[in-house]
Amino acid sequence: MKPDSNGFDSYVYPGHSTRKTGKIRDIIHDQITSVVKEYGIRDRGKQEKDLQVLRDTHMDAVLLEYLFISNPTESALLRDDQFINKVARATAEGIAKAMNLSEKQTNDHWAKPDHDELMAAGIINSDHSHELDKPISWGATLSILNRIRKGEK
What mean pLDDT value characterizes the chain? Predict the structure, then answer.
């Protein structure tokens, strides 16, 4: 690829743009485009192409191409956590919208049952349920892994 290649595009197998597959692709593509355009990324469009990953499947198949690592500006974005998280969220939301899925509503954090079980087992000894999204240090991770390895609490 040339260093000046740029943008986001999506693909379906030729002739599928007007079928269910194309409608799924359109919804996902539009959701992602709404995010990448905030960064000045070019929308290369909704494409059709005879690619094995699209042709040799027995289900709806959409290929998403997120930017170009050969482009220095886009390569930097692909290493930016905030950008990656926004695009990942847009992709998930697009898939959910295309498949008519609704977000599961819960008041508990996804890790709360693990937290509570570890507290009950005495592996952790104080309530950290308010910090479940707090990052953990590499040192703490190593200590935990070593305790697991030794079978300690």
Answer: 90
